[in-house]
Amino acid sequence: MSQDYNNPAFKKLLVKLQEESWQLELLISGFAIFGLFSAYPTLQVASKAAQNDNNTQFTIFLFIALAACSILIFNLLLHVLLRGLWIGALGLRYVSGDIDYEKLNYGKKFSGYLKKKVGSFDRYIARLENYCSVIFAISFLLIFYVLAFALIFTIIGLIISLMIDGNDSSSVLLWIGIPLLIFMIIGMFLTFFDFLSLGLLKKKNWISKLYFPFYWVFSFITLAFLYRPLVYNFLDNKFGKRLSFLLVPVYFALLMITTLNYNHSNYFEFDENSNSFVANSYNYESELIDESDFIEDIAINSKVISEPYVKVFIVFDDYIEDELYKFNPKLKPESDDRGIKSKFIIINGNKLSDNKTLQKDYLKTFNSIYSVKIDSTHFDSEFVLGKTTKNQKGFETYIGIKNLNEGKHQMKVIRKRIKKSDTTSVLDANIPFWYYPD
Q1: SS3 content of the chain, % helix, strand, coil (to 5)
Q2: Residues 310 and 244 placed together within one structural domain of the fold
Q3: Residue 372 pLDDT
Q4: N or C: which end of the chain has fewer CB within 10 A?
Q5: Rounded to 5 degrees, what angle do the CA atoms 415, 420, 425 make?
Q6: 366-392: per-residue pLDDT in tens?
Q7: pLDDT of residue 172
Q8: DSSP state of 223
Q9: How many CA atoms lie within 13 A of 294 on its CB side?
Q10: Does residue 286 sit within a domain?
Q11: Host H or E run for residue 57
């Protein structure tokens, strides 16, 4: 039947499905909203964890997933609200029919105005039906737009990454990469302009011939062949086109609303890093109660310490390992195996996990870079690799403090760095705590 789409019987079936599609719309919207609300908190936690692990690839992927979820939740909630209003209007029409302006007995001024602006109740129902159908269709089309942008930037990022990894500037990879990158950037801007201008580049014959190669390539990159009929169906309909453009400023307004924050003080921001005057909860493991709370950089075990020791935890990231290579060049492997790798692929190379001597040198170098002070006194520390209860990876050590006086103290983590061939020390963390032994 789907092959013979010109068959009158098939067209009759389509008309029947159109008339009954609202039931499927509500059913799909209900299940989708329930699933999205269930998945959204999990995605947020995973995104926060990826950010804290400095996992760029998963952070970008989860950002795209969260953006898609947010668009779908907003659109489908709006669809359900308007569809509910439409069903209510249908029920009211069954009870009272059309609007009888004569029975309202208003003056001529208001009667004429209302007849012109409000019009027939059936027209109102028809407009609600159009809004609901267009919003439902555009909800899933927008997800493809988000995916298209993500794919374009991913490919551009991969090209740049491959060019940076190529050591020889005259290599074939570089000579292929530069023209490809230029083609991608020009094509991206042309495709975006054509999208915003509703196909302006396709209207002039000579311009359309120049634009066609970009259009053809980007139709595959953006997976446009999956949703192109929907796009052109919107573009040839004035109502759908108008509503599509109306939603764009609405999304920007919602984005701006999410960035709003109430400023409580003229002198302090209550979420700034811990220092002599601020005790931020993200620097204390015992304060990270919610599933989405993670250590941002450096933390100790608690604000109030009653045990004769304090735990110091430094979150691991690629920057730390790169700094270790500067202080101990022999740690740098011939091939960098960091990043997303398949467990089915056996990687040959200088792997620290296979060499106990290198592991020992790795931690020795780390401990030569990082040191710990409490107030102005240096304390011996020996960091080892560890994980928190929330599976955050990093370096941890325990400092004996039984000889400290009761009261407030400052835990300071000092880091050495090489800048312009000179070694200097910087304060990486300054965390207040209170010592009251049992």
Answers
A1: 60, 15, 25
A2: no
A3: 93
A4: C
A5: 20
A6: 999 999 999 989 998 899 998 888 888
A7: 59
A8: T
A9: 23
A10: yes
A11: helix 56-96
Give the single-character DSSP code of 265.
-
For residue 392, the tally of other CB atoms under 10 A from its CB is 19
Q: Is the pLDDT of residue 188 over 90?
A: no
Of 322, 309, 272, residue with least CA distance to 430: 272
CA dist 300 to 269, 306, 314, 345, Å? 21, 13, 9, 38
Bridge partner residues of 204 (DSSP): none
Confirm whether 187 is domain-assigned: no
**What span, in angstroms and rounded, lies between the C-alpha atoms of 174 and 171?**
5
- Token reading at 1: 């039947």
- Cβ–Cβ < 8 Å for 314, 383: yes
Q: Measure the CA angle with vertex 62, ends 56 and 64; round to 5°.
A: 105
301 to each of 175, 274, 286, 374, 385, how far by Cα in Å? 53, 14, 6, 15, 16
**Residue 360 and residue 249 in one domain:** no
Q: Rounded CA gap, 37 and 32, in Å?
A: 9
Does residue 269 belong to any structural domain of this protein?
A: no
CA proximity to 318, closest of 52, 64, 61, 59: 52
pLDDT digit string (tens) for 281-326? Answer: 888 988 888 877 888 889 999 999 999 999 999 998 878 888 888 8
Position 240 in a domain: yes
Report the alpha-carbon distance of residue 183 to residue 159 in Å, rounded.
11
Same domain, 241 and 101: yes
Are residues 246 and 329 both part of a single domain? no
For residues 156 and 287, state if they share a domain. no
Number of structural domains, the chain?
2
Q: Any idea what the CATH number is for the domain that residue 325 is in?
A: 2.60.40
431: containing domain = 281-334+352-435
The pair of three-digit structure tokens given for residue 114, joined into one six-digit string: 């209302």
pLDDT at 349: 47
